[in-house]
Each structure stands twice: as C-alpha cells, then as structure tokens.
Amino acid sequence: MRKWLIVVLWISSTVIVFGQNKEISLNDSDILARELINEETKLYRIITTNGSVYFQNENGTIRNVAYYICGTRSEPIVNYKYEILQKDTVITITKSFAYVFSPDVYLEPKIINEFVVEQGSEVYFTDCKQMLFSTLNSLEPECFIVKGEQMSLHKEPSIWYDLIQEYKQGGYIVSKDGYSGLYKITDLKYKQLKMMNNYLFRGKLAEGTVVYVDRAGQEYFP
Question: Rounded to 5, what percent of the chain is helix, strand, coil?
Fold first, then answer.
C-alpha cells in the first residue's frame, strides 16, 4: 500500500497542502492545460485530462507538491534570498529563490540594486545581517550604511544618524545628538522616543514634557 504524507498549514485564510515530493512523467496527451503562473521563476501549472494539478519548473521537472488551495488558484511556495555583496566601496544587492520542495537549492541570483558608499563603510540589512530570507517577492529590503559610530540609509547616504531603529518595514526611529524622530514624518525633537504599540510612540520634549506621537506624526499630551 502506498503511503502519503499530508501536512496542512494555516497561513492567514489560505490552506497550504504538501503532498509527497514526487517527480511526475506526463505525455502530451495527458496535459489539458499548461499555464505560466510565475514569470520570474518560470513556473508553470499543468492540469491533466483527469483533473490533477502539477507544477513544472524552468528545467522541465514536473512535481505534485506545494500548492495553495484557494478557490481555483494554485501557486507554489517560493523562498527568496536577498544578499549584500561588498567589494571595497561598491555594494551589490542580489536576489535568488528556491522552491519549497528543494529549500537548499537556490537558483542563479540576479542583481536588483547596486550603489557606491564612502570608503570605510559597511552595509547591512536589519539586525546587522548581510543575508535576508523572505517569502515576499515584492520585498525591497532597506540597507543600513555604518561608518564608525554613525549610520545612514542607502536611499539617503549623505544624512547620518547616531542610531536607526526599524519599527516596521520602511519605518524608522532615527536619532542624533540625543534627539529622535520618525523618519520622514517628524523632526528630531524628542528624547527617549520609544514604540509603545503598533500605532503609538512615547517620548519627551526638550523641557521634559511627556508626549505621545502616532505614526502620522500627530502629538498627544497626557
């Protein structure tokens, strides 16, 4: 008797089903439809004449694993890897991916960004890492430039801070000379600015007055 391993995971409202990791051999007469479902990864969804669904990668390998059940939508899970490569002052950001059924086999990386930094600078993603993993294809990771005791964002490398803290993707508390603010939202006028929850920050003005600040920069005084 053939045994099958079925694992069901809940992610948001989507059910992800993993079946046995198995390569499939199909004849042309078995294929009812073949549809490109991921342009970047060159992944195809194949529907057979008996109603089965399979996936074919750019190498032509057909497998029956890793698909969403979400209405009529079937799409495999892909893990993306972003990496910072530094050669002297030239920074290169690359992106590659691996299918969930071959998690350690990443395809040839592609360059998604390249820029130059000042001599003596080092570049990192969040948490001082130079490698980042995500299931988000649209992710554009921010790079932090570190030179000595100062930091900057690669989007504005000429503006230096004493500290940059990320509180959400694309959202930062920036600090300089003892004062902090929300990047691109408020001035650097708060002392001891800290995140209270997903929407509110707490700090003090120069004279010591306690103030709460929301993500839009609106101030509230208790």
Answer: 5, 55, 45
